[in-house]
Design brief:
Layout (H helix, E strand, L loop, with lengths): L5 E7 L5 H17 L3 E7 L3 H8 L3 E4 L10 H9 L8 H8 L1 H8 L10 E4 L13 E4 L10 E3 L22 E6 L4 E8 L2 E10 L6 H5 L4 E4 L6 H18 L5 E7 L8 E7 L9 H8 L4 H13 L1
Parallel strand pairs: 1-2, 1-3
Antiparallel strand pairs: 4-7, 5-6, 5-7, 8-9, 8-11, 9-10, 11-12
Helix pairs in contact: 1-9, 4-5
């Protein structure tokens, strides 16, 4: 394929993560233009199929985050239109965005994940689903959207009050998991290889949506200062998750590590099939550590999808 390949960069959309997607998409589009591609930026609306059929790109760079760009919907549309696209396909996207389906794929294959259960949000106003501390999160949102950590001294009430602000006000059902104390780490997989382990240290609270995307709110330790056996284990687990879920292109697997338990304290939280590509994002940062600059990374993702 010549570098005059026409790439439509699909970004924006209407999810909670619209602004982050626009940052990712514009960064990607700038990089592709620098590399000599012909680029059209598409801020996705409900007419996206018509827009793409008129543009007739040779490939779509999927820079969407959240629903419907990350849950298989856009992937299914592009499959029907027979337009190649970056990142994972429809079936993988459907499974990976759903935390319960992800567990059903990974846990039987020996991937350590926190035990959890789906609960009706209304039931939280009667009693706790698990002993405190525990975590509540939407079943199928990314970027730590709507995550609440419920502690003994939490200000949500005991039981949780319907008037307390939290994901129970937005979602009918939530995933409840035991809270794993310790450290937050992540591994990106690009070109079928793990890049490195990054530790995320939020300066206050925990690694939520704001901490992820606000400059200066989280320290990234890249590579993480962890024992070599823990690093090797996380790199292996990230590759296995990528493989078992059928990911294509880049993915990023997030971990909690209770360092008091050593190797037994490693837990996979989720695998992200549409990791951010903003200047603050973890995949470009890990790529830089591996000697791959941003333009090279974006080019690799496109070339892998075309292949």
């Amino acid at each position: 394929m010549s570098k005059q390949t026409h790439v439509a960069v699909l970004m924006g959309g209407w999810s909670n993560e619209r602004e982050v997607s626009l940052m990712s998409g514009n960064g990607v589009a700038d990089a592709l233009e620098k590399s000599g591609y012909r680029v059209t930026r598409v801020d996705m609306d409900r007419n996206v199929a018509q827009v793409l059929s008129e543009l007739r790109p040779e490939i779509v760079f999927n820079a969407l985050h959240g629903v419907p760009g990350e849950d298989g919907s856009v992937q299914g549309m592009l499959d029907l239109m027979q337009i190649p696209y970056t990142h994972s396909g429809m079936a993988t996207s459907v499974i990976a965005i759903d935390k319960e389906l992800t567990k059903q794929q990974l846990v039987p294959r020996g991937i350590p994940m926190p035990e959890g259960k789906i609960v009706k949000s209304q039931s939280l106003y009667v009693k706790d689903p698990l002993p405190r501390p525990f975590v509540l999160k939407p079943v199928n949102e990314g970027s730590s959207v709507g995550v609440a950590i419920v502690t003994e001294e939490g200000n949500y009430g005991n039981p949780i009050s319907a008037a307390s602000e939290g994901p129970w006000q937005e979602f009918d059902s939530l995933l409840a998991e035991p809270y794993i104390k310790g450290r937050e780490l992540t591994v990106a997989v690009v070109g079928g290889k793990g890049l490195c382990v990054t530790e995320l240290r939020p300066k206050s609270g925990f690694y939520d949506f704001d901490a992820k995307y606000t400059d200066g709110m989280t320290d990234h330790i890249c590579p993480a200062d962890i024992p070599s056996d823990i690093e090797a284990s996380m790199m292996d687990l990230a590759l296995r998750c990528h493989h078992y879920l059928g990911c294509e292109g880049p993915s990023r697997t997030d971990f909690r590590w209770d360092d008091e338990q050593g190797a037994d304290g490693i837990f996979v939280l989720e695998t992200n099939t549409q990791p951010g590509m903003t200047p603050l994002s973890l995949v470009p940062e890990q790529a830089r550590h591996a000697g791959i600059n941003y333009e090279q990374l974006v080019d690799m993702i496109v070339q892998e999808a075309l292949a």
